[in-house]
Amino acid sequence: MADNYSITSMQDSEKARTPDDDENSLARVVLSQNEEYIFLGRQKFRKSDLYAAFGGTLNPGVTAPPIHKFGNPAPLGLSAFALTTFVLSLINAQAMGVTQTNVVVGLALFYGGLIQLLAGMWEMAVENTFGALALSSYGGFWLSYAVLNIPWFGVASAYEQSRDFQVAVGFYLLGWTIFTSMLCLCTMKSTVAFFLLFFFLAITFLMLTVGELAPSVNCTRAGGVLGVITAFISWYNAYAGLSTPENSYLQVSAVPLPGSVSRGLRSK
Q1: Has residue 12 got a pLDDT over 50?
Q2: I need a labelling partner for 95 at 20 to 30 A (CA). Which of 17, 49, 171, 256 fits?
């Protein structure tokens, strides 16, 4: 994803070549010489009208304003993910000796699962494909995690040996490790906090995967510690998307990663 966007200087906005002249035009951001206009694919926008990459909106790159005017669903989804991850990660880390994860089932079903899934659907309505994919997928993750821990579904009892179930859970977590790593690659031109969220989440899944497959209690506990860090980063991004000069004395400034084309643009 690091090469998805490239910047081409133009002699002027009227006479210079257009994105149609490039065979990869849909993957290019083209600036006029005075940088007043930007072409996204075959559409032309004023730079002041575009939105920058911002973790508070789960927007990983430069984007045009949405057609539909809805509220920002990202803080809701990020908060649902953060709280559920925080509680489970404390248990994985064996904080205060607690090891049973049953208390997470309710959170995983309704807050991390259902609420986050709904936030993902609203991300689709505001034309944010990345946000829709991320929130809906992790909403599905929490719903499926709850199913694993509800005896009525009979998932664990279907395995004759507990070790077989542990390995199967390891495979399950491995899939989420791969998926999260893919999303992380899509944030490498966004902001520091946005990138760190998916980086730490990928490492968390990796440690939990090793903890199940090895098996290794220490790796699982390390995954718990990393999960707590991930939860706080998620809350940070949620706060960034929620706080405004009208409701808070403390706002979060987005720090673009090197190579980001979002510098000078506004956040949603």
Answers
A1: no
A2: 171
pTM: 0.77
Please give the Cα distance from 30 to 75 (Å, whole number): 31
**Closest by alpha carbon to 141, among 195, 99, 80, 182?**
80
pLDDT digits (tens, 9 = 90+) for 22-44: 433 333 455 555 555 555 555 55
